[in-house]
Amino acid sequence: MSFTNKTTSNEIHIHTLRIPAEFEKKEPSPQELSRILSSTEQKRYQRYLAKRKKVEFFLARKFTKDILGARLNVPIYQIDLQPDASGKPFLFLAGKPFPLYFNISHTSGFITCVISEHKYTGIDIEYATGSRDAVMQRFFHPHEIREYRTLPRSRQERRFYTLWTLKEAYLKAIGSGMRTPLNSFWFSIVDHGKTQTATIHFEDPDNPEAGRRFHFLHLQPTAEHFLAVAVKRDKEVQFISHHHERI
């Protein structure tokens, strides 16, 4: 497996992997768990009840550690991912925090992680299961709801998951998780027709500078998967995508 080993400060590297079908139901052996996961990660692994979720968690951690190890030219057993008080994981080497930042997300059939030199970096990927009108009404900002309702039904599912992943990526970047209500900030999106691109406008009243300092990217790696990245940096960033065929 080959990875990009050098970056510049403006590069944001997004790595994706479609989980092979033969891996989705294959739980790792105790030896594999001990080799890849720390004791803390193993406890979290055991808390998952569904086999598929266990496998996703294990593969996501292995995938991310492989990428970080290749980036830093260190063996995987030296890669330690420790959560802070909010639960957001950070990289430690030789027991000390290391200033290379990452974030991980996984869903049915897909794993993704983002690597950058900026602390406030987040990523989210979701598997689409249809439009969620009730969720929009309950959790999203009124501005987002108004825009959603103006769209034809055929475009509402895409808008819902675009918003959902952007919101999750932002919350993961700032490390607040669901402690920050989803309807306390909003995105306004202008779609550009058949190009599948969009202009994203963002406002967080509790963090007025965020709209200027955060950069966002939204991708749709498959017809069913939606992905978003959020990065805080005063200057422009360059998003670079890497899709991996195997783990």
What does this structure look like?
By secondary structure, the chain is α+β, with helices and mostly antiparallel strands. The chain has two domains: 11-101 and 111-117, 4'-phosphopantetheinyl transferase domain (Ribosomal Protein L22, Chain A, Alpha-Beta Complex), CATH 3.90.470.20; 124-235, 4'-phosphopantetheinyl transferase domain (Ribosomal Protein L22, Chain A, Alpha-Beta Complex). It has helices spanning 21-24, 30-36, 39-47, 51-72, 133-139, 142-150, 153-174, 210-213; strands at residues 11-18, 80-83, 89-93, 96-97, 101-107, 110-116, 121-127, 186-191, 198-203, 214-219, 225-232, 238-244. The strands form four sheets. The chain has a four-stranded mixed β-sheet, with helices on one face. It has a three-stranded antiparallel β-sheet with strand order 2-3-4, with no helix packed on it. Strand 8 and strand 9 (198-203) form a beta hairpin. The radius of gyration is 18 Å and the shape is globular. Mean pLDDT is 88; it is low at 1-5.
